[in-house]
Amino acid sequence: MSSSAPSRPSSRAPLVGLVAALVGVALLVATIRQVGWDEIKTGVGAVGAWFLVVVALGGARFFARAKSWILCADQIGAPGLTPGPAFGAVLAGDAVGNLTPLGLLASEPTKVLLVRHTLPTSPALTSVALDNGFHTVAVLFMIAAGAWALVRQVALDPTIRVVAEGVLGSVLLAVIVGGWVAMKQPAILSWLAQLTARVVGREARSPDVLRDIEARFYGVFAWPRRALWTAAGWQVAFHSGAILEVWVILQALSGGQTSFADAFVLESAGRLVTVLFKVIPLRMGVDEVGAAVVATALGIPASHGVALALVRKLRILVWNAAGLVVLARARR
Questions:
Q1: What is the pTM of this model?
Q2: CB-count burial class (<10 Å; 0-12, 13-18, 19+) for 238
Q3: pLDDT tens, position by position, 260-283
């Protein structure tokens, strides 16, 4: 009996991933059948050579995340991280996070492991956490701004309006919680470590590495103002590249009839979908459904929304393939 117990968690994870993937595929098939395959195929084909621009913008966004991570490492006194390894680790982490149902639980440890030869574990974990902290703040701003833009739509469907208002309320709650954490600086990681130890029946203790990570993380409030603005700038670059990517695709789909504001709203909706449905590998199906719903609310054909999501998914696959190559080389 004792020999079979350890295998349960490992066998459950693939099952969850399989179920999530099947649900996503079912959503994708249903959406394509409702919108019309011919219209979607025509839209994807209309992107043509602009797909190279989309791929390039995706690479630039990964580079922005790598630079943000390097800045965080430098500010906590660990200057050994360079753009090449950081960029490769970001690519590999994104691939692992997208292709498995574990999301951040897989992508961020992957980054840490891939730079272990140049960055010790504690500062690597801290810098990754700080980069994700800046990224989370930027994502919350994007989601809130997009929801606010939807709420201001005069002819918005009542259901979409309620969802948008709910999103605004959730973001406000997150801001309040974040403000409390910033002021009180609770030992969250240490508490989680003690809770986990009690659950698994081990001695409750807080490892020094976790206390070190917490101290370095909260040290961000003492960073020079220039460093904070630079960190914010890399996040702005990341999200600006995403908005520009959506705009380029929509311009190709609509023949130049889509506004930059519409691209902003669609990208913010995409950020929300990413946050809520990371457990589904590649967010199969949910990206397409979300883009179709928001596109319709903006007066854009639903087929354009689905085509937008599919083109972006192709871009994800291109860079995830590169990330898997990085991961394979690292394992060798």
A1: 0.82
A2: buried
A3: 999 999 999 888 888 888 777 778
